[in-house]
Input
Amino acid sequence: MAYTTFNRNEFDTFEQPMFFGEPVNVARYDQQKHKIFENLIEKQLSFFWRPEEVDLTNDRKDFMDLPEHEKHIFVSNLKYQTLLDSVQGRSPNVALLPVVSLPELETWIETWSFSETIHSRSYTHIVRNIVPNPAVVFDDITKNEYIVRRAISVTKYYDDFIELSNYYQQLGEGKHTVNGETIDVNLHELKRRLYLTMVSVNVLEAIRFYVSFACSFAFAERAKMEGNAKIIKLIARDEALHLTGTQHMLQIMARGKDDAEFAQIAEECRDDVIGIFHEAAEQEKEWADYLFKDGSMIGLNKDILSQYVEYITNQRIGALGFDPIFEVRNNPLPWINAWLNSDNVQVAPQEAEISSYLVGAIDSEVDTADFGDFDL
Amino acid sequence: MTNARRAARIGRRRWASSRTFYSDAQTEMELTGGSTTQLEMDLGELPLPATTRSLPKEDTVLEQGDLFDLLAESPEPTPQTIFEGMEKPIFEVAFADGRNARFQHANTLLESLEAQDIHIEYQCREGYCGSCRVRLVEGDVHYIEEPMAWIDDDEILPCCCIPKSALKLQ
Output
């Protein structure tokens, strides 16, 4: 079905599935098939923040004092997160918007992608603050083999789906010959690729980010790189919401709530889902190995981080109604929950650590010794 | 100690106010010096009998009907959970693995469980992340805030609900 920016057909929005129904026409939110997406939009908007609100002057000093192997841990994670958010800042729009059929879901996808672009901008903010030449960090992202390897598995499901989806929109269902190649476009395969893409996005938001989060918070536990941790806290809050959005989409699909074919696809793809989670967990453990290759940091090493990956993988796959795939039962990093917690539980707002209170403020410590050579 | 932890500590200290109790029930209490003594306790609001005496600070022997200050980290009943014409929600919470707790005087089920050393995974604490998801085997809960995270029909989010009956969780 060809994409149109304003569908002139008249149809009942409640009859439409999430994807592959009528293209959306009027962006109206008075009638909602899935109210949850409107709630997610509201929540995401209430979370709005700008990277420049967080002062990073102390982080520059902290970073210079870090030993080399800890600098490696910090910068590598930053590179990886930059990659992940580069993907997430555009891919949901490119992949999902042409096939979406509900206005509230369309707007959620746009809101979701937009908030990822804030994350990307915040990485530039961090990098600018800690190194004199940001290009050293950013240019390595497409060259570093450890990052590239993971980039491939992050993007392959998106790319596979987008490729077939483009053919579907141009040529419709059926067998077509394009540039001498025969392409079989069928809706079932397209829906299968969409479902697997959503699972891979779920893994990205639910597991891949958390290794970096753990490291950032481990630095902050030692009162190092606290500005960065503040930004990561805001990012983690957004990611938790995106994760909820993705889980809702997956569950609506898997239960065939608006398209029975998706329920069948979800059933067919159970092994693929487990495979995607497994692959991601193994890659993240390899990444932990790379991070700590020159030495671990206080409070965190390869083994603990690997256990945390397994633990969080169990949690996330459990949320989709699957059995745990690893042995770990308890959270090996219990302190991380306090960092992942959003700021709404404000105990004492004057505490500088509460980032929402610190909005626009500058928290640069001044020691009495700084005035030591002052004469009046 | 990190600053984030310090913030949490300051918050909790607010509960530790000194309050006056006076009692009826039999309880054993250990006093300084290693001696134990029986005293009566009832935390209800009873009028003070005329025979009650205030306990001198240096006195270590408690007698029946003594008035004493209890310095403990016990939370005061919060106004959120008390409604007129409704009983205070005090319910037993049992876990399938044998752990037990009692919900009383807490804003949410999660807070109550944490105060009783039952730790549940959490993140947002306001119902949008779904980290604290547990399976509800028996009982009923009331949501203070409608949860946004996806939960199955037999699951609850303790971070944003209070029990409406005794609960059995898994």
